[in-house]
Amino acid sequence: MQLGLPTHVELDANLLKSGNALVDRELENRLEVRKYRRVVGELREVKPLAGGTGYHIRGDLTLHGVTQSLEADVTLRAIDDQTIELKGEKVIDMRDFGLNPPKLFIFRVYPEVQIKVHIVAVLQS
């Protein structure tokens, strides 16, 4: 499978969810989704992992108007001739993107958050 680099991915910032409605409301406020509407990923490098189980990727993530370089291991597979699926996860520190952890009553929200990605992409002609 060949990827033309760099590869550009964007999504609406309001799609970022934690699974907890209270945290999600506060996260939306902190992310300033009206001002910073998009989360942008730029893939810079892809290297196969030993054993053929996945890939090590390197790229840039722009969140809340701040761009940081990140690396992660992902699985990438062809579903058919036109469709690919990418899955992976990465722990990031929200402070690296100019975000302070939300404060919710007696709950402590840690600045390190686990980002899980599942992308299904269809190639366009």
Structure report:
- The chain has 125 residues and is mainly β.
- The protein has a single domain, classed as Beta Barrel (Lipocalin).
- Helices cover 9% and strands 52% of the residues.
- Strands 1-2-3-4-5-8 form a 6-stranded antiparallel beta sheet, with no helix packed on it.
- Strand 3 and strand 4 form a beta hairpin.
- It starts with 6 loop residues before the first strand and ends with a strand.
- 8% of the residues are buried.
Summary tags:
mainly beta, Lipocalin, 6-stranded antiparallel sheet, 1 helix, 8 strands, globular
Question: What's the number of domains?
Answer: 1
Percent strand equals over 45%
Number of helices: 1
CATH superfamily: Lipid/polyisoprenoid-binding, YceI-like
In total, the number of strands is 8
Shape estimate: globular
Largest sheet entry: 6 strands, antiparallel
Binned, the helix content reads: under 10%
Distance between the termini: 17 Å
Which strands sit side by side, in order, in the main sheet? Answer: 1-2-3-4-5-8
Radius of gyration: 16 Å
The low-pLDDT segments are none
User: What is the CATH-assigned architecture?
Assistant: Beta Barrel
CATH fold descriptor: Lipocalin
Which class do the helix and strand fractions yield? mainly beta
Write down the secondary-structure element order: EHEEEEEEE
The CATH class, by name, is Mainly Beta
